[in-house]
């Protein structure tokens, strides 16, 4: 027999590793097809469950959802803190279905469910249908995925666009014949992702990092596809940049605040780090514990063997996840920030667990954790599905362990406000203004009869929300004004004039359970005479220093 040198063996191994392997050799065609059918049933079944859940869940809109719904009533190319996609989607959905909770939330159920399709396709393309199925299972059966499929925030469109972009970019870099088609598709999904959330911008440098790390793909640096995809995607930001230039670059200022340096405090930094780790362990799955070990023991080996599948998935998951982990040591990190990076990690961890990725052999004993980890994630997902229905029954509603408490009480508040305003018997609808921070304003507007526009009043010149950007009426010249104050606070001095009368309409207390409550007060401010104002007697005396009249 003719012997081969070590360099020849290494060269052959690198060639095999860099070649796409769509299906494992030990899986028959029939068995492989079964995994494909199972993936279809899983994605379709979860879509149906999410849509039904959004229709029947006894939870009000959270502050963010209602805030973005308020945006959708004034469509624009940009907003205070985020790009415009979430407002556009909610606006389209409520235009078709109506301004109710299901109309707001349906896009979230659709987008999160459809984002599983490119995850399956990418897993199938790289490692076969079995890996594609289990990657979808690991990605979809988590508490974070359940929440993302219910709450219509900026994350569902980001997750869908990120997943599609990963698949399209991989096809663009892999196929020579139809690379133009895949480049166009990747440009559209990446561009729409940039209009959804700022995090999408990370997909571009991470992809370039992969191209530079992969010997097989470095030739793309001299070809037009990667450059056209990058420039075409960034062009989608043009209207956002123009809008920001007209509003003192407010979105860029707000985003930069997340990365401002703070004074070092060891105990605070350690607590922030531990809090982030616990949150990821709980809202994703225990499989996230594998990520740092794969990064430590696997990335170097992947670079050495030039396995482009591992390099691609690792560049889009392990490296940014480790970056967010490091960031959590310096500041508080929200649990949803690294969500898009878990898309590629779900495929990589699944392929590694099933032995398709020969890296990190030092920790191969962790492969046995995979299915128990998926089961733990599925149990957590089921618990989140059941929590809104079980909490009132078992007495946990409003307790410290009730994570749904932020979605409670807004419908009741809207009903109380509607009744109090109706009892004023005003000939013309009043202008509503609140001294609250931005958080409850959208929910108050959504659940109050007629869904009136509620303005925010503040003496600060600092722009802290979209309500500070929108044009407001001159409240001191308004004939009929209803002021909403938090925690039974009185009407501020600067909001009214001496010739206006102020009376208390109602103190509203919303019981959330387990001694937790929200308190608001409604005040009627008008230029009516004393006699006319007495036709609707107040429930108690309200005295304000800046008013010249005390009304009962």
At a glance:
This protein has 552 residues and is an alpha/beta fold. The protein is built from 23 helices and 5 strands. The chain folds into 2 domains: 26-255 and 263-383, no CATH class; 409-533.
Beta strand count: 5
Q: What is the percent of helical residues?
A: 40-55%
What is the quaternary state of this protein?
Answer: single chain
The backbone outline, from C-alpha atoms, is globular
Stretches where pLDDT falls below 50 for ≥5 residues? 1-27, 530-552
Strand order in the largest sheet? 2-1-3-5-4
Distance between the termini: 107 Å
Give the secondary structure arrangement, pairings included:
Layout: H1 6-18, H2 29-56, H3 63-72, H4 85-97, H5 101-114, H6 116-127, H7 129-140, H8 143-148, H9 155-174, H10 179-194, H11 203-213, H12 224-235, H13 238-245, H14 250-256, H15 266-283, H16 290-305, H17 308-315, H18 318-327, H19 341-353, H20 370-394, H21 410-422, E1 431-434, H22 441-447, E2 454-456, E3 480-486, E4 501-513, E5 516-526, H23 530-533
Parallel strand pairs: 1-2, 1-3
Antiparallel strand pairs: 3-5, 4-5
């Amino acid at each position: 027999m003719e012997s081969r040198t070590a360099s020849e063996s290494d060269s052959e191994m690198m060639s095999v590793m860099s070649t796409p392997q769509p299906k494992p050799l030990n899986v028959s065609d029939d068995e492989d097809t079964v995994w494909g059918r199972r993936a279809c049933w899983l994605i379709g079944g979860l879509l149906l469950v999410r849509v039904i859940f959004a229709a029947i869940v006894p939870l009000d809109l959270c502050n963010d959802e209602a805030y973005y719904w308020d945006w959708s009533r004034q469509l624009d190319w940009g907003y205070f803190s985020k790009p415009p996609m979430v407002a556009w989607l909610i606006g389209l959905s409520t235009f078709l279905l109506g301004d109710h909770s299901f109309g707001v939330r349906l896009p979230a159920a659709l987008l999160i469910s459809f984002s599983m399709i490119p995850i399956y396709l990418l897993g199938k393309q790289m490692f076969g249908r079995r890996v594609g199925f289990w990657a979808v299972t690991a990605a979809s059966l988590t508490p974070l995925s359940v929440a993302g499929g219910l709450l219509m925030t900026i994350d569902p469109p980001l997750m869908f666009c990120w997943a599609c972009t990963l698949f399209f970019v991989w096809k663009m870099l892999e196929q020579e014949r139809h690379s133009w088609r895949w480049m166009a598709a990747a440009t559209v999904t990446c561009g729409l992702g940039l209009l959804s959330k700022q995090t999408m911008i990370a997909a571009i440098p991470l992809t370039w990092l992969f191209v530079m790390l992969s010997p097989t793909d470095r030739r793309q640096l001299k070809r037009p596809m990667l450059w056209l995809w990058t420039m075409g995607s960034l062009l989608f930001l043009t209207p956002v940049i123009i809008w920001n230039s007209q509003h003192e670059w407010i979105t860029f200022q707000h985003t930069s605040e997340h990365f401002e340096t703070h004074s070092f405090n060891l105990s605070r930094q350690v607590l922030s780090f531990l809090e982030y780790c616990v949150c990821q362990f709980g809202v994703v799955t225990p499989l996230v514990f594998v990520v740092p070990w794969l990064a430590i023991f696997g990335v170097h080996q992947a670079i050495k063997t030039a396995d482009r599948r591992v390099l691609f998935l690792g560049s889009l998951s392990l490296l940014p996840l480790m970056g967010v982990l490091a960031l959590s040591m310096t500041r508080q990190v929200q649990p949803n920030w690294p969500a898009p990076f878990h898309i590629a990690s779900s495929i990589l961890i699944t392929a590694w667990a099933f032995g398709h990725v020969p890296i990190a052999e030092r920790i191969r004993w962790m492969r046995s954790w995979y299915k128990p980890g998926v089961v733990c994630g599925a149990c957590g997902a089921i618990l989140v599905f059941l929590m809104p229905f079980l909490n009132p029954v078992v007495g946990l509603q409003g307790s410290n362990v009730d994570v749904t408490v932020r979605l409670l009480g807004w419908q009741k508040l809207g009903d109380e406000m509607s009744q109090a305003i109706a009892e004023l018997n005003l000939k013309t609808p009043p202008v509503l203004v609140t001294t609250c921070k931005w958080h409850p304003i959208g929910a108050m507007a959504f659940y109050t009869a007629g869904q009136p526009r509620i303005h925010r009043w503040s003496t600060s010149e600092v722009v802290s929300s979209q309500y500070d950007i929108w044009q407001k009426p001159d409240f001191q010249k308004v004939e009929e004004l209803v002021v909403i104050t938090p925690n039974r606070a009185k009407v501020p001095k600067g909001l009214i004039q001496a010739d206006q009368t102020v009376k208390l309409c109602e103190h509203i207390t919303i019981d959330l359970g387990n001694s937790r409550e929200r308190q608001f007060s409604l005040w009627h401010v008008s230029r009516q005479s004393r006699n006319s104002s007495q036709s609707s007697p107040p429930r108690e005396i309200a005295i304000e220093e800046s008013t010249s009249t005390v009304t009962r």
